[in-house]
Amino acid sequence: MLKNQGQLETPAGNERKGKKCDGNVDSCGPGYHTPLDAMKAPREQIVYLPCIYRNTGIDRPDYVANVDVDPKSLTYSKVIHRLEVPNMKDELHHTGWNACSSCFGDPSKRRNRLICPGLVSSRIYVIDTGTNPRAPSIHKTVEPTEVYWKTGLANPHTTHCLGSGEIMISTIGDPSGNAKGGFILLDGETFEVKGNWESPGDETEFGYDFWYQPRHNVMISTEWGHPKLWAYGFDPQHYADGKYGQSLHVWDWTTHRRIQDIDLGPEGAIPLEIRFLHSPDEPQGYVGCALSSNVFRFYKTPRGDWATEKVIDVPSKKVEGWALPEMPGLITDILISMDDRFLYFSNWLHGDVRQYDITDRRNPKMVGQLFLGGSICKGGPVQLFLGGSICKGGPVEVTHDVELDQQPAPMVLNGQVKCSAPQMLQLSLDGKRLYVTTSLFSAWDKQFYPDMIK
C-alpha cells in the first residue's frame, strides 16, 4: 500500500520537544517547521512501495519496491530495487517513519527508518533507508511474540512518530483474531516494544487508524472489524451482525485516556482513514466511511467536546450482474493537501478518485474526478466471492445512477484493460502530483478484483 513513502511524511501535530532549533534550519530535526514550509520542499525522487504476495498463489515473501519518480532520471517510473522480507505471508500494509515533523525541533532525530508492520503476521520490520536510500536494508525485525506478550495486541496498522521520539502503531485485533483497538509504543532508538500507549481498560472494541493534534490535547481513532472475519474476505452480513465498527474514539493526548465515543450510525459504517487539517491550530478534520461511502467532518464544539456532521455522500449505484442490487463507492483512503485546501479520496468499487475544495469546511465542493478502473466500467469483468458462493461473472450493468449519464470507460495501460481500482493515495508535498495504488487487502483484492491478483 502506498503510504508515507519516500520523503512524503507530513506533519502530525508539529509540536517541538527536546532540543530547540537555533534558527538554522540545518540544525533542526526531520520534517518541516510548518505545513506551508513543507510545500516548498524539494521534489520527491523515490517512493517506497510494499508489494504483497499473500493470496496470490505464489509462495514468496512480500517485498518493498523502490520506484524512481524523478522525471530527469534514466530510470524514471521504474522499480530500481526490491527488498524482500525474510518471512512469508506478512501482508505488509501501511508504513510510516521513525521520525517526522513532530520531532522537528530535535536535531538529534533523523528520518532514516521506515516502519513496515505486517497486518496479518503482526511482525514489524524496521527498514534502514538512511544508509542507502535507493537500496534499503532491514535494520531490525520485531517478532509477533514480543508484540503479543508486551501489549496483548495484534494486527498493527497505522504508524506515527511522536514528538518524544517514540513510535506509535495502532492495532486492530488481539492475538486470537478478535477485534481490539489499542496502540503499540516502540522505543525510537532500539525499536523494542515498550508497551501500550492507551491507559489500562481504555482499549476499544475495534481499531484501525488514528491522527493526533497536541495543541488541542486530542487524538481520534477509527474502526474496522474482527481480523478473523476480514482476513478471509468481506460479507455484508457481518456488518449487520455488529462485527464491524461505526464509531470514532476521542482520546486525551496527555493522559492517554479515552474520553468520548461518537457513534456515526449506519451512515458512518466502517470509518477507516481519518485526517486532521494540517494546520496544528485547526480543531477539525475529516473521516472516510467505507461501507456507507460518506465523509464526515469532525470538530471541537464550544463546550470542548467533539461532534461530527456528514458533509459528502457518494450515492450507491443500482446494478445488475453483481453480488448485491446496489454497489457502494467504498471509500478506502482520504488525504488533505498541505495547505488544507483540497480533500482527495478513492472509491475502490466505483473506481474513481475525487478532489474536493474544502475551503468552506462544512460544504466541500467536488472539483475533480478521475476513473482508474473499478467495477462499473463498461465491459469490466467482475466476480464476487461472497459467503462461499461465486456470483455470476461478467460485466456489471448500472441500471440507475444519479451521478453519471453512462458507465465510465475501462482503464487501459499499454494496450491492456486493467481490472483494478484506485485505493491508497499519496499527494506530493507541493500538491502537484498524486500517487495511487490499487491493493486494499489481499483477501479483498482476490474477492472483488481476482484478475488484479494475477
UniProtKB/TrEMBL annotation:
Alphabetized InterPro entries for the sequence: Se-bd
The keyword Nucleotide-binding is assigned to this record: no
Q: Where is this region: Disordered?
A: 1-21
Entry's SUPFAM superfamilies? 3-carboxy-cis,cis-mucoante lactonizing enzyme (SSF75011)
Q: Any keyword Glycoprotein?
A: no
One Pfam family per UniProt: SBP56
Q: Which keywords does UniProt give here?
A: Selenium
Instruction: Provide the GO MF annotations for this entry.
Output: selenium binding
The Swiss-Prot or TrEMBL record describes its family as follows: Belongs to the selenium-binding protein family.
Q: What is this protein called?
A: SELENBP1 protein
